[in-house]
Each structure stands twice: as structure tokens, then as C-alpha cells.
Amino acid sequence: MKSITIESLARQFSLEVLAGEDQLHRTITRSRTHRPGLEFIGYFDFFPMNRVQILGQKEIYYLHELTHDERKLRIGNIVKYHPPCFIVTTGQEGLTYLTQYCSQEGIPLLRTNEPTSEFIAKLDTYMTKALAPETAVHGVCLNVFGMGILLRGHSGVGKSETAHRLIGRGHRLVADDIVVLKKLSPQTILGTHNEKNKEFLAMRSIGLMNVVRVYGNMAFQDETRIALDIELTKWQKNSLNNELELESRFTEYMGVQIPHIEIQLQPGRDVVGLIEAAANNWNLKQQGYSAAEEFMQRLAEDDSNPDTE
Length: 309
What we know:
Elements: E1 4-5, H1 6-12, E2 16-19, E3 27-28, H2 37-40, E4 53-55, H3 57-65, H4 68-79, E5 86-88, H5 96-105, E6 109-111, H6 116-130, E7 134-144, E8 147-152, H7 159-168, E9 172-185, E10 188-192, E11 200-203, E12 207-210, H8 211-215, E13 223-234, E14 249-253, E15 256-265, H9 271-286, H10 291-304
Parallel strand pairs: 4-5, 5-6, 8-13, 13-15
Antiparallel strand pairs: 1-3, 2-6, 7-8, 7-9, 9-10, 10-13, 11-12, 14-15
């Protein structure tokens, strides 16, 4: 199971450490945060104790209003479960009692000046990506017309060269050679680089190229949601290449099905144009339109209304 440390979280969001400095090595394995409102009033039937606990203005104001004995009881009931850490938002002060209990139990207590809702949104997004199951595949990942495309094929088939032409037409590189895929949800795969190959495109006979240095910042983006899996293959002379493709084909990555198409290569074929067309066609399908279905509907209407003399 993937995990991140409290220390890395503190660095990422510039969090102030109020207690538990010697426990920053503790790990987080759950990607969602939790606000322990119900738990402060004694309801623990569904307490997600393994999540980061966020203390916003409502929670801290409630604790401030309690008597010393009530506060000791309410906080004690939560810290005994040893959640990964507590994070206080909006720069709230007067936390001496909370600092004391966290220090006693060895639980990191951190603070941010950011508003509660904004911080939770940023933190949940960060942890979802950092803790997402992932795998690496051989290929090229690009963003074409705002949608993520995974370009695959055997070594030497021309993936990087095709990517270079797409970049030259204003599209963006995400990763070349090794593409890291992260499963963010049962329907979402995110494509990104592995840091080492960030911004680099490797082309045979040319070598490594830094696309940002050559084409500018707009030629690269850090990540993209994968919408299409395109496989480049060698031309097969006797294969049927004009099928209507009424039934979609898919490639599965970590249990998520991604629409798949195959583009056969032949000298003179405008592969880049075909990829752009595939992206535009997929976008139309997302809006509920299918050219193949409309064509078949027209044929059906002609059959039902034969010409009469």
C-alpha cells in the first residue's frame, strides 16, 4: 500500500508544526481528510481514524466553549485512536490544550493559515494523486485538443516522431517512453511522467530533445486524464480498414477501461491528422453524437421508405 509521511505533507503545504515534531515520520495511507465534528460530541460509530483530521473554525470554537473537564474528555476520546495527524486551519490560536494532548499521545499537530474549505480541497487532491495505485507503460502521453491520449506501439514504430509532429502543431507532451498511469477513481486514469523524463522527447537519429527549451512552456504539461488509447501498428495489406466501428473497443488499465483505436501506418498516411481526427471524434461522442450511428440511421430510414415509381 502506498503511503506519504507527515513530514512530506508539512513541506508540501508549508505547515507549521505545533506538536509531535519527533513523529513526523508517521505515514498516511488514506486519501481523504475528515473533520471530527460528530466525534467531539461522542459519536464514533463511523470514525475514519486512519485519515488526516482537519480542525476548522467550527471545531476549534466548539472546543474553546467547553469547560476544562469537558474539553479533556472530548479531545481524549479522539486522540486515543491515534489518527495520523491533526491540522488546524485559518491560523487559529489558543491551542495550548490541544498541543498538550497531542504531545502526550505523540500525534503531530500542524497549522495552516489557509481557509478550511480551500485547504481541504487542495489536500484531498494532493493525497488522491500521491496515494493512487499506479503502473508504468511504454509509450507516449500527450494532450491533444485538451484531452489525454496514450500513444502505444512496438519499439521503432514511430511514436516519438509522431509526438514531435503533434507538438509542432500546438499540442502538448506529457511523457515519452515511460508513462506513469495513476488510478484516481474507478473511471479515471491520470497520465504523467516519472520526473526523470519530464519535458524530454527521445527521437531516433536525433537523440533527446527538451520540448520546453525548443518550443516553449506551452509544449508541455505535467499530467492529463487519459481519454484515448491509440495503438500505432504496421500496415496490413489485406485487413479491413474501413469498418464502421459501431462497437467501441477498450484497453483496460488497473480495472479502468479506456477507449481504444488502432491506426495502421503506411508511407504517405497523415497519422498526425488521423490522431487529431480521433480526438475530435471522441469529443463528439462524449457529447452524445456518433457519425456511424447517424449513417446507419439514414440507411434504416431509406430501407423503410423505398422509392416507388
